[in-house]
Design a protein that fits this description.
This protein is an all-alpha fold and about 100 residues long. The chain has one domain. It contains two helices and no strands.
Length: about 100
Amino acid sequence: MFDFQDLFQWDRFITPTIIKTFYWLVIGVIVLFGIYGILWSLAAMAVSPFGGFILLLASLTSIVVGIVLSRIVAEFILIVFRINEHLGAIRDQGQGGMR
């Protein structure tokens, strides 16, 4: 898992272990902003029903798009680290055959 000593040593990356925490924090922020947008659109419906409805649709759409985009970004970061691990394994296999 994650050891406190890993913060001071550069032998192991800590990002793959904490990316899930950051992902859930981002999801929480997206949902909170989405709820704020929904409440704002409901208040705007009192002034302009059509404008408030458009804001409501935009808020709901932004929640869905934000969640999908945050998942894509988190997976991309994990893929970069996984590529690094695989390249290290390939390098180690190549060095083992040369000795």
